[in-house]
Specification:
The chain is α/β, with parallel strands linked by helices and 401 residues long. The chain contains 14 helices and 13 strands. It is 40% helix and 14% strand.
């Protein structure tokens, strides 16, 4: 796998397992957008703030003196709100006192979980293309990653969802396998894993006594299919670390408030590692996310419907610009194929795109071990204002000229 600004192999200070990792592709492409004045459809952050009442709750928390270290597990009202969310949406019961942990976003939650679980040489199975921090976190845990490649469907709305070979997943499980790291809805493909696919994961976890770590940060952005938490399947609650966050759902990505829900033994493992990463974070923002989680069904419905309209806007525009487009079943990302433009080098294509037409995208190849499978694919985000998306579409249409 290739990373932006990778550390030189001869660097005398960084340990060998991290030498492939440099500046993340998201930071590189966002910096490129700033330098060139291009429209940034690369990094997945909204260009508007979330609900005003949530922002006001953060301001009030600061004014009311909630500015020192919060409790190690997170403030109790937020842990209670997270537990209530799991009950309301999925009928999953978690004790906020012993089974909920507040983290510095989902990224820290994943890192703490894998650092706590893995011994050197253990293996973690995940699906590629994968979010870039997965590979780095597995390396930091001195574990090894085993990847299952997701294959794209036919382009266009109604073309289906990404798939994988079930036998590939069965074959990946070995004597050193410790965990399966599952992201659904999946970034960057937008895949929403089906009940049958999840049941296969559950069966393997139970048969081989594996831990499941589930990244569910896009749980409220599903346009086709249904988000089914793996922990709801028989026998899985007791062996699943469920991870989500407030950043994507409430459009406050910079606050970095995430959480883990897990049975006490697994939660304590993650907490042991987490306390030596950030210890705690975001005291006033924790209070504000209590307000966010209490907004009620109208908020979630409006958020979903707004993103669904943006999905249609961008996907239709990309197709008009000449990109074969894989309409996502979930998340706020869409993958396209660049081969109609005479190249299969997605990294070079994305680096040249700002100069060519003033738009930034992300090359999917950096999320693959099997680079050939992702070399010709690039990712755009649609969590932007409509006029920004329309401006980007008009610029992209000039590429055919």
């Amino acid at each position: 796998m290739r990373y932006a600004a990778a550390v030189h192999p001869g660097d005398p200070y960084i340990k060998a397992s991290l030498r492939a990792f440099g500046e993340t592709i998201f930071a590189e492409m966002s910096a490129l957008a700033v330098r060139t004045g291009a429209i940034n459809l690369g990094q997945g952050f909204p260009d508007t703030d979330g609900p005003s009442e949530v922002a006001e709750a953060a301001i009030n928390a600061i004014r009311n003196g909630h500015n020192q270290y919060p409790p190690g597990p997170g403030i109790l009202p937020l842990r209670q709100a997270v537990a209530q969310h799991q009950l309301d949406f999925y009928n999953l019961v978690y004790d906020p006192g012993t089974e909920v942990l507040i983290t510095a976003g989902a990224t820290e939650a994943i890192a703490a979980s894998l650092l706590a679980l893995c011994e050197p040489g253990d293996e973690v199975i995940t699906f590629e293309p994968y979010y870039d921090s997965y590979a780095a976190t597995i390396a930091m845990a001195q574990a090894k990653r085993r990847v299952i490649t997701l294959r794209p469907p036919a382009p266009g709305n109604g073309g289906g969802d990404y798939t994988f070979d079930p036998q590939d997943l069965r074959n990946a499980v070995g004597p050193r396998t410790k965990a399966i790291l599952l992201n659904s809805p999946h970034n960057p493909t937008g895949k929403v894993f089906t009940n049958e696919e999840l049941q296969l994961v559950a069966d393997l976890c139970i048969e081989h006594d594996l831990i499941a770590v589930t990244d569910e940060v896009y749980e409220h952005l599903v346009f086709s299919g249904t988000h089914i938490p793996l922990a709801t399947l028989d026998g899985m609650r007791e062996r699943t670390i469920v991870i989500s966050s407030a950043g994507k759902t409430f459009s406050f990505t910079g606050w970095k408030i995430g959480w883990i829900c897990a049975p006490p033994a697994l939660l304590n493992a993650a907490r042991t590692a987490k306390q030596f990463l950030t210890y705690v974070n975001g005291a006033p923002f924790q209070h504000a996310i209590v307000t966010a989680l209490g907004l009620g069904p109208d908020y979630y419905r409006g958020f979903h419907d707004d993103m669904a309209a943006k999905r249609t806007l961008l996907c239709t525009g990309l197709e008009e610009a000449g990109f074969p487009t894989f309409w996502p079943a979930g998340t706020y990302f869409v993958t396209t194929d660049i081969r109609p433009f005479g190249t299969n080098d997605g990294k070079a294509f994305c680096l040249g795109l700002p100069e060519a037409c003033g738009v930034v995208a992300v090359p999917n190849v950096v999320f693959y071990d099997n680079e050939e499978a992702g070399s010709h694919l690039i990712r755009f985000t649609f969590c932007k204002q409509d006029h920004v998306l329309n401006g980007a579409i008009e610029r992209l249409k000039t590429l055919r000229q």
